[in-house]
Amino acid sequence: MQYYDQHLHTFLSFDSEETFEAYLDKDLPIFVATDHFDLQNPCSQFKDDIPNYDRLCQIHQDLTNKYPTKLLKGIELGVVPGQQAQIEAYLQTHPYDLHLLSIHQNGRFDYMDDIVLTMDKLKIAQMYFDQMELVLQTFKYGHILTHFEYGLRRLSFSAEELANHFETQLTRILKLVIQRQMGLELNAKSFGKYQNAPLYDYIIPLYQSLGGKLFTLGSDAHVADDYQLLFPEMAQLLAKHQVKQLALFENTEIQLVSLI
Ligand SMILES: [Zn+2]
Ligand SMILES: [Zn+2]
């Protein structure tokens, strides 16, 4: 089994126009769209962004006859404390094969909004990691913790600053990730657009030192041309840390495949 991209967006996300066909035309053995679910999303004037589940099922039904690709259902869950019960109830009646767990916003602003530039960067980072820790403690879904540095992207943190201020808390967070048998994602937007590869170079050995072994790569593509974006570069960083396998998640199954 070959590794496949486990972080992809289509027009079922509020911030993508991409079609399923554009991805499937790439002759993929397996395809999983992980569209955005964010309740009261500051990026959408506090509307609930929920990918249309009936539409997803219909699309899968239509495409099954046209492509040999195996289709899985995925979702990227942005979680704000206070929303856990509502999201869990939704997921009980809307089953998915793959749940990405993300922290994007705090009910007032998205951590990538300009407003964070006007605030104290340590306070913002603290707020962001507190939220991540609480969500990992209290929200039961999630196969993969995505882009762990999302909340730092506008704040230009060095690996050294991150270690100095947040290593104790990151250790607790990574222990929860390990306890829950979740994967730790290397995200292509973090590597390319936001130039945060040094933060991954720091967190990979920290996670390993605690026993963490489940790594995933995600392009976070919003257009099909970005499928597996920067995978060679991200795989190279993992190889530098002696990682030899990647993890694929499907329902209760975890499959380890060789590093691409
Ligand atoms: Zn995200
Ligand atoms: Zn995403």
From TrEMBL:
Q: Which family does it belong to?
A: Belongs to the PHP hydrolase family. HisK subfamily.
Keyword Glycosyltransferase, does the record have it? no
**GO BP field:** L-histidine biosynthetic process
Q: Any one cellular component term from GO for this entry?
A: cytoplasm
From the record, give the transmembrane residue ranges.
none
SUPFAM superfamilies membership? PHP domain-like
PHP domain: from which residue to which, for each copy? 5-188
Q: What class of enzyme is it?
A: hydrolase
What are the alphabetically sorted keywords of the record? Amino-acid biosynthesis, Histidine biosynthesis, Hydrolase
Question: What is the protein named?
Answer: Histidinol-phosphatase
Q: Which GO terms describe its molecular function?
A: histidinol-phosphatase activity
Which pathway is it part of?
Answer: Amino-acid biosynthesis; L-histidine biosynthesis; L-histidine from 5-phospho-alpha-D-ribose 1-diphosphate: step 8/9
Q: Which reaction does it catalyse?
A: L-histidinol phosphate + H2O = L-histidinol + phosphate
EC number(s) of the enzyme? 3.1.3.15
Family matches, as InterPro entries = Histidinol_P_phosphatase_HisJ (IPR010140), PHP_dom (IPR004013), Pol/histidinol_Pase-like (IPR016195)
